[in-house]
Amino acid sequence: MIKGVIILRHTGFCSQKTIRQNRVKQVNHLSFSEDTLSGFTIIELLLAIFILAIMFTAIFGGLNDFFGNIPVVTQKGELYEMGCRCMKRISLDLWGIHVTADKTYTPPDLNGPSDPCRILGGNRYNNIYGTHFLRFSSNEHVALDNSPEVGISEIVYYRYESREGEFVLKRSDRLYRKKRFHMDENDPVICEAVEKLKFTFYDTEGNEYDTWDSDSKEFDYATPAAVGILLKLHKKAGIHSFQTKIALPVTRNAKNEDEAI
Questions:
Q1: Is the dihedral of CA 217, 221, 222, 223 positive or negative?
Q2: Which of 196, 199, 192 is nearest to 80 (CA)?
Q3: Number of folded domains in the chain?
Q4: How far apart are CA 245 and CA 71, in angstroms?
Q5: Is the pLDDT of residue 159 over 80?
Q6: Residue 97 has what DSSP assignment?
Q7: Residue 154 and residue 20: Cα distance in Å, rounded?
Q8: Which residue range(s) make up the domain with 112?
């Protein structure tokens, strides 16, 4: 009886040992291989770093270009807005043009005063070539000193070289009871960076002229039927060109020799 018990206990002891050995085998079977535990190779790490460097270079390079172009885009937009405002101002002045009527107009004498509403324009002012200008009368007087005075004013647009060597477009606006026009550096600048300014004049038949003088026999003492404007602005940020043609709301017809006397 006792011997049997011992055998049973011995048999149980062997069974437990066998179970532990089986568990060790299972753990060894589930463990990672030596190659898996070795991790990434140096070549794989370098390749990953190289790819990340390319990605960051592309991202930050694009952001740098974007933020670097903001001043250029802003300056180009300001240049465009300035040109639009300038063309609008000239158009408004021409739409408000004032012309001496046919019945009341008298051609000036040789040494007599010119017509107060004379239309004069071209690429030469007082024998100064390259000074593109346009002179006319208009109801669109703008009082810069907040003066309540109103009336017909003499308006002159002219290209002017500033002290910095940059060409600008100026607008002279003087009521007739004040002093007459002369180029003045104190005249307001309505447009900067003016690379080109050109006025083209059209008669009733559509013929083009680079100059015009409504007090001249060459043009039969008539006013133009329309005025074309070409304005080109140029800065480092870019170039903007503006062009328009304004049909004058009032005109004076040509006079023959008998009518002019």
A1: positive
A2: 192
A3: 1
A4: 33
A5: yes
A6: B
A7: 114
A8: 76-132+193-260
Residue 69: inside a domain? no
Q: Can you tell me the distance from the alpha carbon of 198 to that of 133, in angstroms, rounded to the nearest whole number?
A: 8
Is the separation of the CB atoms in 241 and 231 below 8 Å?
A: yes
Residue 185 maps to a domain? no
Determine how many CB atoms are found less than 10 A away from the CB of residue 125.
20
Q: Is the pLDDT of residue 1 over 90?
A: no
Taking the C-alpha atoms of residue 169 and residue 197, their distance in angstroms, rounded to an integer, is 8
Q: Which two tokens stand for residue 238?
A: 């870019």
Cα 115 to chain centroid distance, Å, stands at 39
Cα(80)–Cα(168) distance, integer angstroms: 15
219-244 pLDDT, tens digit each? 999 999 999 999 999 988 788 999 99
pLDDT of 223 reads 96
Do 108 and 114 form a contact (C-beta atoms < 8 A)? yes
CB 122 within 8 A of CB 210: yes
In a domain, 139, yes or no: no
Give the range among 24-33, 133-142, 187-196, 202-211 with minimum mean pLDDT. Answer: 24-33
CA geometry: angle 144, 161, 128, nearest 5 deg: 105
Both structure tokens of 93: 């002045």
Question: Hey, what are 110's tokens?
Answer: 């040789």
Q: Which residues contact 77 (CB under 8 A, 6 or more apart)?
A: none
The whole-angstrom separation of Cα 139 and Cα 220 is 25
The answer to the question of residue 6 being in a domain is no
Beta strands in 67-207 (DSSP E): 120-125, 128-138, 153-161, 167-175, 189-191, 194-202
- The pair phi, psi for residue 259, each rounded to 5°, is -70, -30
